[in-house]
């Protein structure tokens, strides 16, 4: 695990509320977790905009910086595709009314931000006015109030152009020797990366105890030699990462990803996969809700500028999509 | 100051030609102290009693003329020392007061001053708050550069008298007599000086000579701390639990699990009563739910034992809620590990409500629709909030259709799953309105402060789902001092109604035994 040295400030919690527990979880577990603090470090790029979550009295209680020019936001649900920005500091009833994904935010080359509602069963409002799902994108300006479900956010764009953003991104991606796998957060590679070695397959997962540590665990697999331990990710990102999630293999001159977990999904360009799948330069891998960017030496690949939002399935009719003659 | 002479409340006893102290009533009706004496003595007082001082010391505020000084009284309700009131003060309150007084004297010593003899007549007693204050220092003098045996002893010899009178309830026989008493074990027994750590303290204060004499206020604090430890009466816990499969025809096994661990240790004279109590209601298929709840209870109890083994007792006593949350996190990860690596038998999930009782405080972790209750002052207070769809609907002001309503009570919004580990933010603790309800603002930071007579109840939905809150309340009131009978009553109620779910109840009764 390596990361550029540009960012040395201590890790920041998005919610920023809970103080750390005096209890060492490793002692309570009986085995230790290898939490890499770099995985929870602040984003290496400058934010393009920020969503400030407001409470009932319109007081900001949390902020979600946006680092990508085109992002999906909402909550993660494994049956839908991963989203770039997870709105995680919400209460249960607010999450219940949040789509997966809920909306698409995009910074146009003209410098305008636009929003498109994607959730069919839950409302999206711009300054109190409802937006139709999948209707034309609407412009969002500084200070606009965006209501996703029942939660209101204050939108604040920052003074940074797309070109500046692209330069920062290029610098970050050039700081490594490709091939490498970059962690993405809020729409762009955030700094931490793991170099890829064509001779050795890389397994992605989280710390787990050696066989025999816990009762009836004698048959558990041993930890692979070449392993990127993602235990250090913030709770909300790591909860959908399996202990042995996926393996990256270089075969027939191409990189492949092989999903290992039956519980947690693996996505390539937001499409769930079940079998080893070949990867293209610049592909985006999803391990549960955590996203990764594959940087290969063959081309000067960049993260995909545009994400095609998945076509939302409206279950409100109570009819499975297969019976719908339109589809 | 106004020219009008301030009305005097009381003058403290003093010797002829010595500085005097009296309590006067100020213009704002608040009492204050006026000390009168020679100018060089007053200069010393101004330095020794300069604010900010210890809360048991008055602080100099004003100089009305050259021979007197006004001082602020730290406690307006303090009365001149009254031996009767002091003897009737509870032991532990008296020892706490003496500990504070020692720290005040220690501060004077650190500032380079000695009282050259402290007498009961120089003290004020606030019996309601249990505090002793120094209200006169007529012999105040600089601490000699090389203090002899008697310098410290003069200031602390009064502690022998105070402790003796409070513990034995009769008049102090005097230092010479006490020294004789202390040298004779039979005499100690006859007088009744048998309280642990008490003769040692008396021996330290009564004379400046010999190996046992206290040479420094730190030693006095040590002696008083030992005495305080001996007086601490930990809460006694009486625990009962019952869990049944139930009598519903299609309910083939018991998916509920519960467990508790109670640890009593006495190490270094410190008695620690620490306990962990949990209920888990398994969900999923027939075998899976039972496996998940069993795994959760076993993993949680094991985590609690590891915490007890590794964490300093101070951490557990000060942050029981953090410990409970940590246990829930570790348990959640344990389930996720088995779900991934041994998926054949581990596909379900479970609710989890765990209670940590450490000393006088309780911490809670809570996920799902099992419940924790507190019976206090005849009120039954729910400590946890159900994580159900019905509660989400309530917060959304959504009026569900009849079919939706039925399902929404059974649908749980959070649980420990073998599929996905629960993140920290989704492990709940006490309800948010509880600090106001129980009038304890630091409840979320330090845990629920427990009282003598509290009754804690943990139930799964099979038990409380068959009972209205009112019925559970009346059952708890009926059996408030018999946890076994209460658990039986709650479970039997579910059985008598042929409830569809397994039912589990656990009750913990807290009491503080009076000193022997």
From TrEMBL, chain A:
InterPro entries assigned to the protein according to its UniProt record, in alphabetical order: FHA_dom, SMAD_FHA_dom_sf
UniProt xrefs under CDD domains: FHA (cd00060)
Bilayer-spanning residue ranges: none
Positions with biased composition (Basic and acidic residues): 314-327
Region (Disordered): 301-327
Limits of the FHA domain: 202-273
Protein name as annotated: FHA domain-containing protein
Organism the protein comes from: Lujinxingia vulgaris
From TrEMBL, chain B:
SUPFAM superfamilies named among the record's database cross-references: PP2C-like
Span of domain PPM-type phosphatase: 238-510
PROSITE patterns per record: PPM_2
Positions of region (Disordered): 1-24
Cross-referenced InterPro entries: PPM-type-like_dom_sf, PPM-type_phosphatase-like_dom
UniProt name for this protein: Serine/threonine-protein phosphatase
């Amino acid at each position: 695990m390596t990361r550029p040295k540009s960012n040395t400030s201590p890790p920041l919690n998005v919610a920023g509320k809970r103080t750390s527990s005096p209890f060492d979880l490793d002692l309570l577990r009986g085995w230790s977790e290898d939490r890499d603090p770099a995985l929870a470090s602040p984003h290496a790029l400058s934010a393009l905009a920020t969503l400030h979550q407001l409470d009932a009295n319109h007081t900001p209680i949390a902020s979600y910086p946006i680092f990508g020019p085109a992002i999906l936001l909402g909550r993660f649900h494994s049956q839908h595709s991963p989203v770039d920005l997870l709105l995680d500091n919400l209460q249960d009833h607010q999450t219940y009314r949040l789509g997966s994904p809920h909306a698409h935010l995009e910074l146009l080359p003209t410098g305008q931000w636009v929003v498109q509602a994607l959730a069919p069963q839950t409302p999206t409002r711009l300054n109190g006015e409802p937006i139709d799902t999948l209707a034309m994108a609407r412009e969002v300006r500084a200070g606009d109030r965006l209501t996703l479900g029942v939660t209101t956010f204050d939108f604040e764009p920052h003074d940074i152009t797309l070109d500046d953003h692209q330069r920062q991104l290029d610098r970050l991606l050039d700081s490594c020797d490709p091939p490498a796998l970059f962690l993405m957060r809020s729409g762009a590679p955030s700094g931490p990366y793991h170099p890829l070695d064509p001779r050795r397959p890389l397994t992605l997962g989280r710390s787990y105890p050696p066989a025999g540590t816990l009762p009836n665990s004698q048959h558990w697999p041993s930890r692979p030699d070449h392993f990127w331990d993602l235990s250090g990710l913030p709770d909300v990102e790591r909860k959908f990462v399996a202990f042995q999630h996926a393996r990256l293999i270089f075969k027939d001159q191409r990189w492949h990803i092989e999903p290992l977990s039956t519980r947690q999904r693996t996505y390539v360009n937001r499409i769930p996969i079940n079998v080893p799948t070949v990867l293209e330069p610049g592909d985006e891998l999803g391990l549960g809700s955590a996203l990764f960017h594959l940087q290969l030496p063959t081309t000067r690949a960049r993260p995909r500028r545009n994400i095609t939002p998945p076509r939302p399935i409206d279950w409100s009719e109570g009819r499975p999509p297969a019976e719908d003659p339109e589809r | 100051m106004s020219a009008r002479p301030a009305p005097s409340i009381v003058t403290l006893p003093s010797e002829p030609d010595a500085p005097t102290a009296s309590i006067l009533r100020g213009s704002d009706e608040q009492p204050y102290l006026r000390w009168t004496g020679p100018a060089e003595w007053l200069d010393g007082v101004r330095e020794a009693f300069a604010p900010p001082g210890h809360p048991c010391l008055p602080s100099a505020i004003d100089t009305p003329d050259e021979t007197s000084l006004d001082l602020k009284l730290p406690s307006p309700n303090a009365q001149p020392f009254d031996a009767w009131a002091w003897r009737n003060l509870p032991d532990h309150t008296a020892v706490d007061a003496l500990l504070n007084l020692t720290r005040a004297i220690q501060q004077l010593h650190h500032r380079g001053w000695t009282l050259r003899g402290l007498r009961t007549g120089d003290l004020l007693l606030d019996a309601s708050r249990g505090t002793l204050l120094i209200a006169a220092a007529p012999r105040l003098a600089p601490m000699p550069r090389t203090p002899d045996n008697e310098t410290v002893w003069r200031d602390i010899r009064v502690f022998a008298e105070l402790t003796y009178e409070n513990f034995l309830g009769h008049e102090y026989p005097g230092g010479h007599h006490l020294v004789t008493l202390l040298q004779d074990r039979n005499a100690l027994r006859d007088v009744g000086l048998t309280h642990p750590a008490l003769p040692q303290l008396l021996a330290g204060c009564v004379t400046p000579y010999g190996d046992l004499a206290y040479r420094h206020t730190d030693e006095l604090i040590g002696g008083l701390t030992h005495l305080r430890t001996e007086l601490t009466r930990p809460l006694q816990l009486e625990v009962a639990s019952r869990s049944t499969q139930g009598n519903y025809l299609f309910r083939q096994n018991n998916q509920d699990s519960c467990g508790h661990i109670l640890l009593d240790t006495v190490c270094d004279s410190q008695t620690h009563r620490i306990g962990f109590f949990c209920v888990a209601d398994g969900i999923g298929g027939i075998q899976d739910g039972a496996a998940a709840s069993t795994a959760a209870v076993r993993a949680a109890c094991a985590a609690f034992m590891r915490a007890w083994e590794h964490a300093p007792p101070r951490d557990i006593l000060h942050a029981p809620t953090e410990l409970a949350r940590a246990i829930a996190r570790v348990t959640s990860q344990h389930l996720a590990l088995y779900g991934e690596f041994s998926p054949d038998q581990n596909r379900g999930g479970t609710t989890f409500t765990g209670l940590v009782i450490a000393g006088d405080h309780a911490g809670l972790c809570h996920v799902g629709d099992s419940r924790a209750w507190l019976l206090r002052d005849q009120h039954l207070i729910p400590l946890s909030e159900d994580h159900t769809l019905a509660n989400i609907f309530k917060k959304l002001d959504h009026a569900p259709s009849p079919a939706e309503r039925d399902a929404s009570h059974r649908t749980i919004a959070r649980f420990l799953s073998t599929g996905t580990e629960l993140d920290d933010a989704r492990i709940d603790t006490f309800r948010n309105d509880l600090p106001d309800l129980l009038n304890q603002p630091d409840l979320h930071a330090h845990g629920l402060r427990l009282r003598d007579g509290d009754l804690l109840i943990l139930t799964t939905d099979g038990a409380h789902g068959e009972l209205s809150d009112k019925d559970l309340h009346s059952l708890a009131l009926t059996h408030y001092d018999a946890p076994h009978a209460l658990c039986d009553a709650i479970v039997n109620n579910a059985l008598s109604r042929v409830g569809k779910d397994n039912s589990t109840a656990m009750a913990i009764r807290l009491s503080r035994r009076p000193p022997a």
